[in-house]
Amino acid sequence: xxxxxxxxxxxxxxxxxxxxxxxxxxxxxxxxxxxxxxxxxxxxxxxxxxxxxxxxxxxxxxxxxxxxxxxxxxxxxxxxxxxxxxxxxxxxxxxxxxxxxxxxxxxxxxxxxxxxxxxxxxxxxxxxxxxxxxxxxxxxxxxxxxxxxxxxxxxxxxxxxxxxxxxxxxxxxxxxxxxxxxxxxxxxxx
Length: 190
What we know:
This protein is α+β, with helices and mostly antiparallel strands. The chain has helices at 2-19, 23-38, 67-82, 94-110, 115-144; strands at residues 41-50, 54-57, 149-161, 167-176, 183-188. Strands 1, 2, 3, 4 and 5 form a 5-stranded antiparallel β-sheet that branches. Strand 4 (167-176) and strand 5 (183-188) form a beta hairpin. Helix 3 runs antiparallel to helix 5 and helix 4 runs antiparallel to helix 5 (115-144). The longest helix has 30 residues, at 115-144. The model is unreliable at 15-19 (pLDDT under 50).
């Protein structure tokens, strides 16, 4: 009798598991509903492929309170570019350049090179130290950012007729809510 009950419970759990929807199947169902409302010719819709469904998380954005630091960083980068140092942007690696300027400065003092050249190197170093200061503030914010789960995403490739009646291959990245009941964003990939 115990064996029969165990077999029945096992069969029941298999049946329940096989009937429940996976996240992928929920997403595909939501995509079809979305296309019913948005495609020019839904009857021509033909799915090609879908990526695996993955978690969608928030992305870091520069906080409003750091906008002055970003402006200052851009201003200093422009000063460095105008000084004849080279063409840099706000993502340039300040640490390596400061290290190189230290080595050049030390060499210049040892070799007793032209004082105007030494002064130029010192000015560059001062600019780069200021640049690094503001860059570090922004990077600290970015590095301490903790992304939050906001839903799910999946890329879906399909064919459908456009307004002119031509069959097109499209690829769209969909973002869904946490429960995969609606499309939150749809972005064409190509």
